[in-house]
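Task card 7
Instruction: Convert sequence to structure tokens.
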Amino acid sequence: MYRESMSTDPSYALRTLIAHLEQHLAVVSQSRGAADAAVDAAFGSLADAFEDYEDALYEQYSELLPFTIPNNDQ
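Output:
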């Protein structure tokens, strides 16, 4: 999955994460079922934004979040 270049500014990364959370909710609320590719795409974008935010937090403050993203590749 393609990831945009990460900003090291945690505030920017947080705003981006919130936008992806809102987009995910919009897509899920209009989903046509479990096989809806738009839901998978929204999940992937949200996961990327989460990782960018956590990376920015760690880089700036050496802090991690108490969450993990499920990985279906394992």
